[in-house]
Amino acid sequence: MIKYIPSLTDTVIEEIPDRVTLAVEITNCRGNCPGCHSPFLRDDIGEELTENAIDKLLADNFGINCFLFLGEGSDSAALMRLAGHIKSRWPRVETAVYSGRDKVDDSFFRTFDFVKTGPYIESLGPLNKPTTNQRMYYHGQDITELFWKR
Ligand code: SF4
Q1: Could you tell me if 51 and 17 are in contact, meaning their C-beta atoms sit under 8 angstroms apart?
Q2: How far is the CA of 65 from the centre of ligand 1 (A)?
Q3: Is 69 in the pocket of ligand 1 (CB under 6 A)?
C-alpha cells in the first residue's frame, strides 16, 4: 500500500522541467537523509493512494501534465501499479518519482518518465546546485544540468 498526505498535495512548476506537475507527498519513506527536511514522511501516516484517488486528483486539477510521487514509500509493487494506472488511464500525463536512494532498479526507469535519485545532503545542496549529489533522469537520460541553467 502507498500512502500520501492529501493536505500537502500541490501544483508545482519547478520540480520537473517544463511540466505543470501535481506533487503528492508519499509517506513511509525508507530513506535516512542527513538533514531530512520532512522527517514525518518516514512515519506510517496519511491516506491510501488508490487508483480512484489518483483519478480524482487528476480530474480536479485540470491542466496537469505530470504526476509526481514525492517519495517511493515502502511498497514498490503498489507504486509501480499506480504509475502504470496513470499511464493507461491518463496517457497525456507523464509520471515522476523522487527516490531518496542513490540507485534504483531498472524498473523505475522503465515505469516512470522522470526519476530523481539521491538523498538530500544539506552540505551539497538540492538539485539546482551544481554541487548536488542528486540526479534527475528523463527516460533514463541524466538531465540534471537543466536545473543549473535556470
Ligand atoms: S527521502 Fe530523505 S529527505 Fe525525503 S523524506 Fe525521506 S529521509 Fe527525508
Answers
A1: no
A2: 25
A3: no
Whether the CB-CB separation of 12 and 23 falls below 8 Å is answered with yes
Distance of alpha carbon 138 from its chain centroid, rounded?
Answer: 13
Task: Give the ligand 1 atom nearest the CA of 70.
Answer: 4
Which segment of 32-36, 53-57, 93-97, 144-148 scores lowest on mean pLDDT? 32-36
Q: Is the CB–ligand 1 distance for residue 126 below 6 Å?
A: no
Is the CB of residue 98 below 6 angstroms from any atom belonging to ligand 1? no
Owning domain of residue 106: 3-123+134-148
CA distance linking residue 43 with residue 47, whole number of Å = 12
Q: Among the atoms of ligand 1, which is closest to the Cα of residue 41?
A: 5
CATH of the domain at 72: 3.20.20.70
Q: What is the per-residue pLDDT across 7-54, written as a single tens digit (0 to 9) for each?
A: 999 999 999 999 999 999 999 998 887 778 889 999 999 999 999 999
Ligand 1 centre and the CA of 39: distance in Å?
Answer: 7
Per-residue pLDDT at 100: 87
Report the number of distinct structural domains present in the chain.
Answer: 1
